[in-house]
Amino acid sequence: GKLVIATHNAGKLKEISALLAPYGLDCISAGSLGLPEPPETGTTFVQNALIKARAAAEASGLPALADDSGLSVAALDGRPGVYTADWAETRHFEGPPGRDWYMAMGKVEGMLQAKGADVPRDAWFSCVLALAWPDGEHAVYEGRVDGTLTWPPRGEMGFGYDPVFVPAGREQTFAEIAPEEKHRISHRADAFAKLVADQFGV
Ligand code: ITT
After folding, report:
1. Residue with CA at minimum distance from ligand 1 atom 5
2. What is the whole-number distance in angstroms between the Cα of residue 92 and the centre of ligand 1?
3. Active site residue 68
């Protein structure tokens, strides 16, 4: 069947398409349908993922999948968290890390360094996937990956904060790890495994 991917973030769209590839769905991006971006007025990943999925399902008349995600830093009491995208100058980053994302990553690093030289560098990515159907039914799945922040940024793959995030037990950043490997261990992969088990029974 058809599924609208309710994101305007090219990096996410690429990852969600790859993760959904085995399930034979006809994926349509919100951008290609010209769907508007609803304001993300929620204060949790779950609320914002549902806002985006419901808006896309209502506007398109098709089932829709949305992803709300972000980076949380332990020493910053979990910030930026749901406000991760807002901390960047540019929300829709494509391709290798550019100046705007470098500045956003630097903002997080600057706040961390302001806590002192030996501050713990623990961080985690969260991902909430929300499915919504035109009849109002919905489901949410939460994923997480723990790691540490490194500086300066390293690697050209992935998107967003990948160049500064080293997943637990690794030495490379997410931007230095091949996409297939990131898709095995990421917050998005964790949420996807739960979605697939629930929706496709595998
Ligand atoms: P949509 O709402 O259109 O999906 P967005 O970029 O605004 O796109 P969010 O509000 O969920 O999405 O913001 C999540 C931000 O968290 C995203 O812009 C990235 O900066 C970061 N992020 C999420 N997943 C990430 C990942 O796998 N790698 C690196 N950064 C990630």
Report:
1. 9
2. 9
3. yes
The vertex-89 CA angle with 88 and 92, nearest 5°, equals 80
Residues pairing with 41 in the sheet: none
Instruction: Verify whether ligand 1 is closer than 6 Å to residue 158 (CB atom).
Output: yes
Counting beta carbons within 10 angstroms of the beta carbon of residue 73, is it exposed (0 to 12), middle (13 to 18) or buried (19 or more)? buried
Is the beta carbon of 81 within 6 A of some atom in ligand 1? no
70 lines ligand 1 (CB under 6 A): yes
Helix count (H) and strand count (E) of the chain? 5, 6
Instruction: Find the catalytic residue in 26, 67, 68, 198.
Output: 68
**Could you tell me if the ipTM is greater than 0.85?**
yes
- Taking only the tens of pLDDT, the chain with its 202 residues reads 899 999 999 999 999 999 999 999 999 999 999 998 999 999 999 999 999 999 999 999 999 999 999 999 999 999 999 999 887 644 344 445 555 556 678 888 988 999 998 999 999 999 999 999 999 999 999 999 999 999 988 999 998 899 999 999 999 999 999 999 999 999 999 999 999 999 998 7
**Domain annotation for the chain: domains and CATH numbers:** 2-200 (3.90.950.10)
